[in-house]
Amino acid sequence: MKTPIKHITMWCFVLFSAITLQAQNENAETLNYLILSKNIQQLKPALITANALAKEDGKTYGNLYVVFCGKTVQDIADNSEFNALLKDINSNQVKIFICGLSLNKFNVNPADLPKNIQVVENGILYAFQLKKQGFISLTI
């Protein structure tokens, strides 16, 4: 019995589609998140959010970056609650950044900041650069 070419073409299409869908699932895009904040009190909700996103996203979860800008940078060095929360940032790929322009404006010495905080020259510019890289962002 001869198989019509139409049936062969259809089965080839179905097989190709299945292979393509499987490859897309295996190469799922990593989801990275950014929070730009002017309030260090947002660190605790950011950590809670990171935990929820890691569970929700599963293997596609990448990182959650938090960038603090503005006057709030004055309150970081001596804030025991904030510094205690920083000990939790190793879980769920959370990274904390501080705006260097804000540090300069409010006369905060970067050496007074906890060691696991990174200073970026311009927090707003850094946020835009991360957006260009595909980070999902929120300003609070």
From TrEMBL:
Superkingdom: Bacteria
InterPro entries: DsrEFH-like, Sulphur_relay_DsrE/F-like
Alphabetically ordered keywords of this record: Signal
Signal peptide: 1-23
Name of a matching Pfam family: DsrE
Entry protein name: DsrE family protein
Native organism: Aestuariibaculum lutulentum
Lineage, opening ranks: Bacteria, Pseudomonadati, Bacteroidota, Flavobacteriia, Flavobacteriales
